[in-house]
Amino acid sequence: MARRKKIYEGKAKILYEGPEPGTIVQYFKDDTTAFNAQKKEVIEGKGVLNNRLSELFMTGLSQIGVPTHFIKSLNMREQLVRNCEIIPLEIIVRNFAAGTISARLGIDEGTQLPRPIVEYCYKDDSLGDPLVTEEHIAAFGWASQQEMDDILNLALRVNDFLSGMMLAVGIRLIDFKIEIGRVYDGDFMRLVVADEISPDSCRLWDIDTGQKLDKDVFRQNLGNLTDAYTEVASRLGLMPKNTKQNATTSE
Ligand code: 5GP
Predict the structure, then answer these.
(1) Ligand 1 pocket, 46 CB below 6 A?
(2) Rounded to 5 degrees, what angle do the CA atoms 198, 182, 138 make?
(3) Which domain does 57 fall in, by range?
(4) Cβ of residue 60 lying under 6 Å from some atom of ligand 1
(5) What is the torsional sign of CA 17, 42, 53, 100?
(6) Is any atom of ligand 1 closer than 6 Å to the C-beta of 215?
């Protein structure tokens, strides 16, 4: 059997060359890291859940006209995506204070922000993904002014979509991170939401109890991470209630 070509291996995913030019196979690993990979664990079933959840969010976004890299699901751990040139920024949207904004500005976790706040971090693990301003982005040429306008617009549309989807199942979208890529179609270039959208890259709190249903469960040793992600998947209708515990065994 021919071995497929690995293009890149990150902390939570592996990218392989896709079957056609311009496509990539995105494989979701069970590897779980936090604090710039200082904390690491393999959590069985996490990759399966993130693959399924990311597919759900990406397909929903395309249905409302937000372009994404997602093409189709291939199997429990893999999806076919458009190859794109990732803009080296993490785009963070915050609705409620938590994590680094709470630490940086001394705002109590859970405080509702006056409006969604969009932040940009430079994607570089060796620097710890530092927060940057639009001045840095323009000066270093990471994205053009037109792209920044489009990125802001995309980020806010993703926020409205995800907030509504979560609210409908009793979950508060505290914040999230997305990545944006450039896709080239002949002479044209367009921006798409790329990478993944999953509980690894969002903060999701139960609206009534405040229970954390995202990667903070791992970061802060709050319990079983797959149980939390399975709860999100189950509320979103991705698994029948009585097979919740089978997320790790149904591969
Ligand atoms: P914070 O800046 O508070 O650490 O993170 C804000 C949001 O962005 C959180 O939902 C967090 O999970 C997400 N986020 C920030 N950096 C990363 C990253 O490097 N990888 C992933 N998967 N999510 C991130």
Answers:
(1) no
(2) 100
(3) 6-84+225-249
(4) no
(5) negative
(6) yes
Q: Does ligand 1 lie within 6 Å of residue 203's CB atom? A: yes
In the reported structure, the alpha carbon of residue 209 is separated from the centroid of ligand 1 by a whole-number distance in angstroms of: 22
Residue 41 pairs in a beta bridge with: 32
- d(Cα 60, Cα 41) in Å, to the nearest integer? 30
In ligand 1, the atom with minimum distance to the C-alpha of 214 is 12
Provide the β-strand partners of residue 102.
Answer: none
Tell me the per-residue pLDDT of 1-30, one tens digit each, with 9 for 90 and over: 677 899 999 999 999 999 999 999 999 999
Give the pLDDT score at 242.
58
CATH code, domain carrying 139: 3.30.470.20
pLDDT at 106 over 70: yes
Give the CATH number for residue 240.
3.30.200.20
In one-letter notation, the amino acid at residue 122 is Y
Question: Which residue is listed with tokens 């699901």?
Answer: 73
Nearest CA to ligand 1 atom 21: 201
CA angle 155-30-162, nearest 5°? 25
Is 136 inside a domain boundary? yes
- Per the CB < 8 A criterion, the answer to whether 46 and 226 are in contact is yes
